[in-house]
Specification:
Blueprint (H helix, E strand, L loop, with lengths): L1 E3 L4 E3 L4 E7 L14 H14 L3 E5 L12 H15 L6 E4 L3 H9 L4 E4 L8 H6 L5 E5 L17 H18 L7 E4 L8 H9 L11 E3 L5 H7 L7 H13 L2 E6 L2 H13 L6
Parallel strand pairs: 3-4, 3-10, 4-5, 5-6, 6-7, 7-8, 9-10
Antiparallel strand pairs: 1-2
Helix pairs in contact: 1-2, 2-3, 8-9
Length: 277
């Protein structure tokens, strides 16, 4: 299995680690630590030394309760970093739902569009379909960041997430986007209760039926705090455990803050001969 992106074909025969680069003052975990180009690039380079396979750059926080960021401010945050990050020799993803940011990032050399709205914004499908090669990650979210955790409800969370993601992938395929360019993300923590998240994890293999690779993002999230009682800066062990559980249930990419620990855990898993899915 491979993920075809703008400049790279990513081999998914083993799990890949996507390192998070938040160029924001207000992300739930590390907001403000990498808010300028110099510190963000230093963080990118550190993640690569720790073993990251992909860098995911984002300029707008999608934490629960977050307000939308003005377009010009998001562009000003991400483009200077992106223009330098694409020289680092690894795939670079842009985490955005705004079509103008997608277009500018792809023009600047981004390899992947990672969209929490799964390209539902008007014109977003056309941006990706109009690019000859970029990869795309389609994520499930019930509601929007500002209100998504108010009262999430599902009759069957796994079935509803699966059907949504398959429909979004099918919409892209109808526009001529090759299946090899598409990855799906269940959207852990996006419009889901603690119970919904763990039900999705337990039954995650049911999302594999459409034939697309899965990306999972559990890193440092509040659901881990809910079961461990740990503050956000104390969730390393829980985050690594969740990443391994997601991989065991079929995820091919894990999106994480703590790259070194996750890479080490995956090395031990591989050397033990344990299955990826």
């Amino acid at each position: 299995m491979h993920w075809h992106t703008s400049r790279y074909v990513i081999d998914l025969s083993r799990p890949r680690v996507m390192g998070i680069v938040n160029i924001t003052p207000d992300s739930f975990s590390d907001g403000g630590r990498h808010g300028d180009t110099r510190s963000a690039m230093a963080h990118c380079e550190q993640l690569l030394r720790e073993g990251a396979d992909i860098l995911d750059l984002g300029g707008e926080s999608s934490r629960p309760g977050a307000e939308a960021l003005p377009l010009e401010e998001e562009l000003a945050r991400v483009l200077p970093v992106l223009r330098e990050a694409v020289r680092l020799g690894v795939p670079v993803s842009i985490d955005t739902y705004k079509i103008e940011v997608m277009r500018a990032a792809l023009d600047a050399g981004a390899d992947i569009v990672n969209d929490i709205y799964a390209l539902r914004s008007p014109g977003a499908e056309a941006v990706v379909a109009g690019h000859p090669r970029c990869g795309v990650c389609l994520m499930h979210m019930q509601g929007e960041p500002k209100s998504m955790q108010a009262a999430p409800h599902y009759d069957d969370v796994v079935t509803e997430v699966r059907d949504f993601l398959q429909a979004r992938a099918a919409a892209l395929r109808e526009r001529g986007v090759a299946g090899e360019r598409i990855v799906l993300d269940p959207g852990y923590g996006f419009g889901k209760s603690v119970g919904h998240n763990f039900e999705l994890l337990r039954r995650q293999r049911e999302l594999l039926g459409a034939g697309y690779p899965l990306l999972a993002g559990w890193s440092r999230k509040s659901w881990l705090g809910a079961v461990t009682g740990r503050a956000v800066n104390e969730r390393l062990a829980a985050s690594v455990a969740a990443a391994l559980a997601a991989v065991e249930r079929g995820a091919r990419i894990v999106r994480v803050h703590d790259v070194a620990a996750t890479v080490d855990a995956l090395k031990v898993w591989a050397h033990a001969g344990l299955p990826w899915s």
